[in-house]
Amino acid sequence: MYSVILTELGISVFDDEKLEKSFPFSNPVKEYLLVKNKESKLNELINYLASIQRGVSVSDDALLAILKKNNIDSQIMEDSELERIQASKPQIIVDSGFASNPQDALGKLREFALGLSSSKVTEVSESPDLHIIQAINSLDEIDKIANALSSRLREWYGLHFPELDNVIDSINGYAQIVMAGKRESLTKQVFEDAGFPESKVEMLSLISTKSRGGDISDVNLAIVQSIAKQILDFHDLRKKLEEHVESEMQTIAPNLSAILGTAVGARILGRAGSLKRLASLPASTIQVLGAEKALFRSLKTGSQPPKHGLLFQHAMVHAAPRWQRGKIARAIAAKAVIAARVDVYGDGLNKTLLEKLNVRVDEIGKKYENPTEKDIRRPESFRRDGGNFRDNSRRRDDRGGRRDDRGGRRDDRGGRRDDRGGRRDDRGGRRDDRGGRRDDRGGRRDDRGGRRDDRGGRRDDRGGRRDDRGGRRDDRGGRRDDRPSSNKNKKRKQFGRR
């Protein structure tokens, strides 16, 4: 049986390790990719194999599909044969006449690898879904910049016309009024050209004559008007980007646009990275795309996981009651996965997906029309101990303490209270109601740190012990009394005996 081997530099036909015919590639990278994509015709090879009228074994699945399409009796090689060809590929290239020696073959294979990498980068860069991702990201960035400039514009022009900020909410309308100049030059025609209704035009005309704002210089007004012009330019650019995203999404991902809408679909497509990767994600991942921080926080703390991420911007989820949003988001995510797979591997718009989604949303609305007790009550806070959730088996009583297995009641300070009202600590002593602690020797320690012993004396904070005669004994064994001493004795104490 003849063997047809596809290499990076051409196609060779062998008969028991003897070369019969070789077909080199004039442009190795381009023609090799055409064979891999099953788009190459290979007329010379087909005519040669048709002339020998024998079955052939093929080393590549794509090449096998091309031969079978042209009615050539062919089959794939065994795994052992494929491994042998892969291990001895430089020698096969030399035997086929594509290279002069093994070193030359390795050099040409290196050039082929570099060219193949460059073509792959070019192919990925030309992917239309990546351009959609850049467009939707640019749209979001324009919104951020326009909002920041609008805030600055309102503060700056508000020094001259402060009442205008409370009346006009539209960024575009406010910028158009600023472009008209100072408030003295604002007429009804200016307000009408900005697109305001008649009732608001009358209000703006009235407050412009009674404004309490200060005057603005021509230099400052020119800068403010330049900011307003930038905002109007951003508004026009945003319209163009919206139209571009909508048209591209309808062309590249029509089913995804039908399920999610063009704006939400483009944002989820951008978060996934590409349309092909979005088609490989599970529905549960698409449901929480955009809520990664909340998801990982719930995994770490044990709190409630998020029910939706970017899907909250979907009209069905946003308009639904709170207790239905999670179920509707899951249904939309499930249909979005199927829609993405149809866009990648299928052809055309499938209207059945949207119809089934509407039916499912109606079922959720009827079945969960009213919230359940679980939806009404406050979410429980879970505690993670040692990596596992567990309930606290200790029971707290009405007094705020916690009873343990020994029958005692432990309070918040960790001690254990007995039935006599005292609190036993871990050292075995029992604390009474006066705050002191009785130890095993019968003495009682007071709050000042001293201990009353059996002899009736009390040791104070200075380390001495007061006896019954009223004196205080120090550490050297002497007794200091409470009688006042003379000046002579004070000097002896201060300077020593002379």
Description:
52% of the residues lie in helices and 11% in strands. The chain has 498 residues and is of the alpha+beta class. The protein folds into 3 domains: 2-126, Nucleotidyltransferase, domain 5 (2-Layer Sandwich); 131-241, Helix Hairpins, CATH 1.10.287.4070; 253-368, Nop domain (Serum Albumin, Chain A, Domain 1, Orthogonal Bundle), CATH 1.10.246.90. The protein has a 9-stranded antiparallel sheet, with no helix packed on it. Strands 3-2-1-4-5 form a 5-stranded mixed sheet, covered by helices on one side. α5 packs across α6 (102-125) and α12 (218-252) packs across α13 (254-260). GO terms for molecular function: snoRNA binding.
Can you describe this structure in just a few lines?
With 498 residues, this protein is an alpha+beta fold. Helix 7 (128-158) packs antiparallel against helix 12 (218-252) and helix 7 (128-158) crosses helix 14 (262-272).
Helix content: 40-55%
Quote the average pLDDT.
80
Placed side by side, the strands forming the largest sheet appear as 8-9-10-11-12-13-14-15-16
Which range does the strand content fall in? 5-15%
Kindly provide the name of the CATH class of the largest domain. Alpha Beta
Task: Outline the low-pLDDT stretches.
Answer: 381-430, 432-437, 439-443, 446-450, 453-457, 460-464, 467-471, 475-486, 488-498
The total of beta strands comes to 20
